[in-house]
Amino acid sequence: MDDFEYRGKTLFCEDVKIEDIISEVGTPAYIYSKNAIISRFHELKTAFQDADALICFSVKSNSNLSICKILAEEGSGFDVVSGGELFRAVKAGGDPSRIVFAGVGKTDKEIKYALENDIFMFNVESLAELKHIDTLAGEAGKIPRVALRINPDIDAKTHAKTTTGKKENKFGIDFTEAEKIIKQSAQYTSVDLCGLHVHLGSPIYTVDPYVRALRKVVKLIQKCRNAGLDIRYMNIGGGYCISYTGEKVIRPKDYASKILPLVKEMQCNLIMEPGRFIVGNSGILITRVIYTKETIHGKKFVICDAAMNDLVRPALYDAFHRIWPVNTSIKMPEVEKFNKSMGKRGMDVVDVVGPVCESSDVFAAQRALPKVGEGELLAIFSAGAYGFSMSSQYNSRPRPCEVLVDGDQYCVIRRRETHEDLVRGENFT
Ligand code: LLP
Predict the structure, then answer these.
(1) Least confident piece of the model among 45-59, 78-92, 159-173, 377-391
(2) Ligand 1 atom 19, closest CA
(3) What is the pLDDT of residue 143?
(4) Which of 278, 306, 325 is the last residue before a domain boundary?
(5) pLDDT tens-digit map of 317-373
(6) CA of 274 relative to ligand 1 center, distance in Å
(7) Most informative mutation of 37, 55, 60 for ligand 1 (most atoms within 8 A of CB)
(8) Is the peptide bond before 203 cis (omega within 30 degrees of 0)?
(9) Using an 8 Å Cβ cutoff, are 240 and 255 in contact?
(10) pLDDT, averaged across the chain
(11) What are the Cα distances from residue 49, in Å, to 43, 46, 55, 260, 350?
(12) Domain that holds residue 189
């Protein structure tokens, strides 16, 4: 739990009491630690320094301008997947010459926008897309760098809905198709086909899938070079894991020890697209208990004011997030996954739910928690990645505010939405 810790009986982010922030901004609220974000970025950078990797922060994981700005200031590039993300990255101070653009469905409008910005590279996911980029670049008189995104058909052993590198997934180009494209690449005179890209899914808890994918790609690089292509870049995507449970997980240096020798063998410059690793454990979501209720069957619910529209990961992927009261005399277990504290004194076994009208609006099912009552604050941990960025206004619920902590200071980096924000842009017929 980077930079979030209990001091005495209350939770802090860096040197600020969570309770103090909440008394000013209300709930639900996302709270991020600037120090955690910067530390994680540099941990990754250091682990891969032998390859002088270009680290492109994956904007989809947390697209707040202030978060992107922090990373831009640290020298990060950006991985974007839409015109909107490109707009955000540039607005936050991101250097376009360090921006890579992925995605299976880039529109002509988005391609033109990226060309105008002279981004570093397009990660191309089909022959059809390559043709569009080639034509549009020709019209604009530009020769953008292009990497073919390869679908290596590797099972990264992650959730079915976050796996991207298997043959049945929509992402990337299979080896047979890639070889065909390489053979006819001389036709595409307005692109510089100089890289390969793989992204296997996320989070990936072992290095093995990366190694297997890269071994397959090494052979393709040779074929590219034999066909006269000057392949200079290998983009290994994102997917680096974080601990959601408190258990120890592998770290960047563990990935690096196995990946770097392969990249060296490829004689390529390394590009990486981490999202979750940098921001996942750098943010929490604070919610307030509205009611508690117990059914005649003895089932206990803690109903809080955050819901699946604010953090959809548990509803969408059955994702596990640690939850603990902000103020409590009971210590949060170091590893919580197995509900070791069930049945202990002062504890309840509850479902933590939100107010949205969906049965899947559950943050935690049958979870051991210190007894909590109306008005108490709960922290939902590991919410910095794919938290706010996947939020919606479903059930016409204004989205929460976002707060950034820096040492003993904090500031609101996105204000809470209002009811007026909900209807902005709508007209009566
Ligand atoms: N590069 C590409 C091409 C990607 O599609 C993604 C994530 C990343 C990099 C960054 O992956 P990361 O390092 O953050 O794991 N919403 C899901 C995760 C979906 C990720 C989609 N692509 C979740 O909440 O777990």
Answers:
(1) 159-173
(2) 162
(3) 98
(4) 278
(5) 999 999 999 999 999 998 875 555 566 778 999 999 999 999 999 999 999 999 999
(6) 8
(7) 60
(8) yes
(9) yes
(10) 95
(11) 10, 5, 10, 10, 46
(12) 34-278
Give 159: exposed, middle or buried? Use CB within 10 Å, 0-12, 13-18, 19+.
middle
Residues 213 and 320 in one domain: no
Angle at 318 (CA atoms; ends 5, 198), nearest 5 degrees: 90
Report the distance separating Cα 65 and Cα 92, nearest Å.
Answer: 5
CATH code for the domain of 162: 3.20.20.10
Structure tokens that stand for 203 in this block: 């989070």
The pLDDT assigned to 1 comes to 61
Is 194 labeled as catalytic in the residue annotation?
Answer: no
Q: What is the reported pTM? A: 0.97
Question: Which percentage of the chain shows pLDDT scores above 90?
Answer: 91
The set of residues, in sequence order, having a beta carbon less than 8 Å from that of 128 and lying 6+ positions away, is: none
At 427 the pLDDT is 96
| Signed CA dihedral, 43, 92, 385, 166: sign only | negative
Cβ atoms of 217 and 196 within 8 Å: the answer is yes
Query: Same domain, yes or no, for 42 and 157?
Result: yes
* Residues in the chain, total: 429
Same domain? 136 vs 157: yes
Task: Answer yes or no: is 429 within a domain.
Answer: no
- Which residue type does 117 have? N
Q: Which residue bears the tokens 């928690």?
A: 369
CA of 95 to the centre of ligand 1 (A): 21
pLDDT of res. 341: 56
Question: What integer is the mean pLDDT of 175-183?
Answer: 93
What total number of domains does the chain contain? 2
Q: Report, as an integer, the average pLDDT of 399-425.
A: 98
Which long-range contacts (C-beta less than 8 Å, at least 24 apart) are formed by 185-188? Answer: 185/227, 185/229, 186/228, 188/130, 188/131, 188/134
* Catalytic-role residue among 56, 68, 194, 357: 357
Nearest to 118 by CA among 147, 93, 98, 91: 98
For the stretch 366-405, pLDDT in tens is 999 999 999 999 999 999 999 999 999 999 999 999 999 9
Please identify, by atom number, the ligand 1 atom nearest to the C-alpha of residue 277: 13
- The residues lining ligand 1, judged by C-beta closer than 6 Å to any ligand atom, are 58, 60-61, 79, 102, 162, 199, 202-203, 237-240, 273-277, 313, 385-386
CA of 202 to the centre of ligand 1 (A): 6
- The pLDDT score that the predictor gives to residue 167 is 82
Query: Does 345 lie in the same domain as 359?
Result: yes
